[in-house]
Amino acid sequence: MSLDLTDVTLTYPDGGSRLTALDKVSLHVPAGTMTAVLGPSGSGKSSLLAVAATLITPDRGTVTIDGVDTTGMSRARLTALRRDKVGMVFQQPNLLPSLTAAEQLQAMAHLDGRSPRKAAPRAKELLAAVGLAGQADRRPHQLSGGQRQRINIARALMNDPAVLLVDEPTSALDQERGAAVLDLLTTLTHRRATATVLVTHDRSHLGAVDAVVEVRDGRVGAGAPTGA
């Protein structure tokens, strides 16, 4: 399982011309590793994540997920690929207020056409993996910010993805809770052999990742070494 972007170029309309968001970007993230993506606002980080998630089709280049080249796939096939192979962790958990922690995860199984009831053991396993075994019946308003973000992570892993894409998961957390969430992501990446991409502004995270790249003006280069 791995994620590969090869010579990816993405442009957007800008008046009478085109604005280049990604310029011949290549990125290889092996299974069981986490790559941090750094860069200032507007550098292309969000575009890179959207292309990696197959939410946006690049002008040129290829995106390969778990050995599957997504070039030329129909919208329906891309949707199925995202459902089966890609987990996404957003800045805000966006949990459904009426659902318990366990039900948040079981809803993902429903989207995959599986019975939520049959998915209950998987949900229980993942809640235990993120340290929330005792919170399965609690709703979002009964949980702390760090606990909600842990549910967000567990939900992204519900369909056992090959690729995990994480967008600023600690931006709304204090330093202690943010460090705990990052430790959790690192552990789960290695244990579940996902190819994980972490978009972050926080350089204190770099010691926990396996590789670092920096995006500037749509181009990817080597970032600070891990452990810096």
TrEMBL record:
**The species this protein was found in:** Streptomyces ochraceiscleroticus
SUPFAM superfamilies documented for this protein: P-loop containing nucleoside triphosphate hydrolases
* Pfam families reported for this sequence: ABC_tran (PF00005)
| InterPro entries, per database record | AAA+_ATPase, ABC_transporter-like_ATP-bd, ABC_transporter-like_CS, ABC_transpr_LolD-like, MacB-like_ATP-bd, P-loop_NTPase
* Keyword set, alphabetical order: ATP-binding, Nucleotide-binding, Transport
Q: Which Gene3D superfamilies match?
A: P-loop containing nucleotide triphosphate hydrolases
One GO molecular function term of this record is: ATP binding
Q: Which CDD domains match?
A: ABC_MJ0796_LolCDE_FtsE
Record's keyword annotation contains Hydrolase: no
* Record protein name field: ABC transporter ATP-binding protein
All copies of domain ABC transporter, residue ranges: 3-228
